[in-house]
Amino acid sequence: MPGTRFSTGLPAIESAFGHPTGQVPRQPDLPDSTVEIIDLPADTQIRQTPPDRPIGSYFLPPVLVNRLPLADAQSGLRLAGRYLYADLVDGGTVLIGSDAQNQFRARLSNELLASGPLLERVEGTNHWRPVRPTDQAGHSELVVTRQRVPDDPHAALRDPWKGWGIDSQHASADDIRVDGIQYKVVPRGAVNDPIVYIKNPMHMVYDFDLLDQTLRTNPLEQPRAAIQVPPTYHWVVDPTLPFQSPMTEYVASYFPELSAVSLENVAFQQFVLANGSSIATGSGLTLLRQTFNDWKVGNNHPRPQLADPLLMLPILPSTGGGTVRITELPSASANGALQRLDFNPQLFRQEWQYAQATQTAVDLKRFMATLLTRNGYTVFDPSMSNAYPAVVFQRTGHDYVYFLSLHRIRGRKINQTLNADPNSASLRLHIQVGTRAAQVVVDAHAANKLIWLRGGSQLLASAPDTVFIIRDGHSRL
User: Fold this and answer.
1) Model's pTM, two decimal places?
2) Contact at 8 Å (CB) between 260 and 40?
3) Domain range holding 120?
4) List of long-range contacts for 148-156, beta carbons under 8 Å, 24+ apart
5) Which of 130, 151, 169 is the last residue of a domain?
6) Domain stops at, among 115, 130, 145
7) Tell me: the pLDDT tens digits for 158-204?
8) 367: which of 129, 225, 231, 317 lies 20 to 30 Å off by Cα?
């Protein structure tokens, strides 16, 4: 009987023209590798089954694993917001969830029910492992997946988007035709945007979870940019990958000590701001790419709210009256609402231990100044005053100025006394933050470019220690 031929290989990606996110180097061409099966018995049962995704495709990148809390002693799981993570005995950490039978499995972030390998805890440890399938007696079975071998056996791997064509009868007015092939596109966003993005027709709409998971597990399946080339204005697809890593990893590269929850919330908020909603548009994808490129090369940001998490924070309300104002800190939960930034003390343990061992305001200012500097901000030299600690800082790429009042919080509330005279010697601005920083604050306030923040250490009995920052609408001038 005729043989069934299978093609295997590695992706080879070649950039055709310049791109704001850079070039992807070309992989060396590999010879075609095929497997041919012939002379199967006539009664052989052949059925098509989807291949199981290997456990390695669920692994989190180390930069995110380092930000997760330690494993709980009772469950052996690492809890971050609404998500559960498990460390595997053979290395790697995976997101886990329950399947329809309420069993733990490796999970993709866009799944309601986990569908990955079944997992079990190794008794007496905080590590987990895939459950080995039980051997079952019975007839052997050959499972074959049939695929057509293209004329160029590496084309589908090098340019997988060439297999995303659709029938003309399913086309809409927004779709485009490239080299005679019709493609679905991501909703365009701005009508006059010259860049559109073709997409895999199996992906209906890209919300944050689907796009981030695609970038994490199968980046070649992400949407591809297309432009019209004069003089004929025919459409050309840029084979360069628009995104080189998941969005949370972009954030982690430039804010390296944020907690895992804050990384996810910042990336989600950035996605929503760029697209104007929770669904991706072509214009939104281009804005995200531009922002990531601006981070990389140090450009000024035309939309700084997309580039700096502190500008994404909402102004939190305060309560109270008379001489006391109270701000209650919201929980640090991964529910998509970015209300606070948190830095993970596990990533700077020595500095954190020293900060907790001293109670002087000057040491608190120095601790926060070095933390902000490590995460890309430029901090004015803190003053030597121990009264009402605060630091002033900026970030390359925009002209906003931050005034951060510092606190040591046990619990969830910041109590602010309002009856102090701001003109008293200990509260004068140049005493608090230094002469140079004071002038910068006054100028930024006049230009409506001053952002008031509160932050510091928060200790809770029911949660890990953290260093937080929130946005406050109360002027200190």
Assistant:
1) 0.69
2) no
3) 55-130
4) 149/5, 149/6, 149/7, 149/34, 150/7, 153/7, 153/9, 153/32, 153/34, 154/9, 154/12, 154/29, 154/30, 154/32
5) 130
6) 130
7) 688 889 999 877 778 889 999 999 999 999 998 888 999 999 999 98
8) 317
